Target: DinB family protein
Amino acid sequence: MVEFIGDDLRGSRFERVNLSGARFRASDLSGASLRGVAMTGVVMRGVELVDVDIYGEIANLTVNGVDVGPLIDAELDRRYPDRAKMRPATAAGFRQAWDTVERLWAGTVARARRLDPDLLHESVDGEWSFVETLRHLVFATDAWVRRAILGDPAPWDPLGLPWDEMPETAGIPRDRAARPSLDSVLDLRRDRMSTVREVVDGLTDETLGGHTRPVVAPGWPPPDSFPVRECLLIVLNEEWEHRLYAERDLAVLEARDS
Model:
């Protein structure tokens, strides 16, 4: 165990560091930035949480004795009426959800096309660019549909983009420097989205309740069996959340373009 007592660590950078079980007491975290950080089981007592912006997966979060997770979900469902469709329980529900994904993304892409193409490679607040977001969704489809559900051990395209914190994995490309055109990435997206369309169109309630066969090859997800519904829910969540990120950042880019 390493102890830092009375040390000045302002401006320090922690990346791929294991701080599980660490204890912070009488410490100043003002202005800290946390991205891709696992905080399961964190306990905070006597904290001052003011002007804080949190965006992530929130469940069983109790603030001053109140579980705020259900309150957040209810408010998000109110703001985005289509959001509830992203939690289907039947094959027909997944088809309806994918109809919604296709419709919403069509509008977002049309919005992006009105911008200077160079802006679509720009990061907003350190997040992925619009093009990188599309590339990541290609990776998500390859991982959870083409690999996990359809059994292709290495479905990766060179333009696919894993999440930044993913450990280096043999055979999976990770080219952050690539700057493909919007049209080339959209061609790739259309191919992957059509794959999902074929899967959900052929889905039955029986197959939805089944499990995938393990793919015995290095990659992501790991060689294991997964509930089919879980794989498709992951894809829906990726599509939903990343489109919201894209819409948020497009608003900033539009201001720059003007």
